[in-house]
Amino acid sequence: MKTLRNFFLNLKVISIMVYSAILGRAYLKDYQPETLCYCQSGGREMMLDIYRPKAPSAAPLPVILWFHGGAWKMGNRQAIERIAAEQLERGFALVSVSYSLSDIAQWPSQCHEAKAALRYLRANASELGINADKIIAAGMSAGAHMACMLGVSADHQTLNGELGEHNDQPNTVQGVLALYPPTDFLSVPEDYDGLLDYYAPDSPVTELLGESIRTAPEKADLASPAKLANKDCPPTLLLHGDADPIVPIAQSELMHSALLNAGAQSEFIPVADYTHGDYRFNRDQPAEKISSFLQTLI
């Protein structure tokens, strides 16, 4: 049963990745990114792509720092949601980051790499034409988890790591946009009947952490942004469909409550009948809300 459940989970995640990549690439086909190495991790060059608006700007560009989804075990930096890509027309630079998948490295390596990418952008902001004080972390699913982690852990030395050459730079972001993020692994009931069994030996969460959340609760909490919310977290926008069969909507509700209880600014948009990776997040009211939120941060 668990094997069949995992098969359908992988099928769903792959379909989301493919669809996301198709939409994003279709929109970005006329944009040529600048590809740069932001650090070395485990002897590998870690890369990011910088997309800039077609219209030149005399002022430094605000940045959407994008992390792809894929259950931490698949996907690549070319998988960009259309709604993120569309912000190029609204004056943002879009930076999409590669991070180690879970078959290569376990947590907190992915967080260390995300922080290294952030510090790299800050250190080289002038040369890159970006505004180091207007960087918004964003992502979908596992990438939204990464974005939330950046938002909650600016002063967390264990999660900041020391990758790259710019450890003198701040680890802060000025906003977080998270589409259906997992935020508190241990809060998911063991009898949760969605496509993802969070406690299984072959769960993407187990693969990310290197062991089950059941036997490693401290490690699970270190990867759960809702457990790390604090008053210094930046403004956060969470969107989640109530028909999500992979990440229950309660995960965004928990994150929202944790941020508010800590004294931080958060907005949560539950969307009726939307599923995980629903294309409609790129349209209509959710898209308008996302664009409006991003504009308030610049």
UniProtKB/TrEMBL annotation:
Signal peptide: none annotated. InterPro entries: AB_hydrolase_fold, BD-FAE-like_dom, GDXG_lipolytic_enzyme. Residues 48-259 form the BD-FAE-like domain. Pfam families: BD-FAE. The keyword Hydrolase applies. Keywords: Hydrolase. GO terms for molecular function: hydrolase activity. This is BD-FAE-like domain-containing protein. It comes from Oceanicoccus sagamiensis.
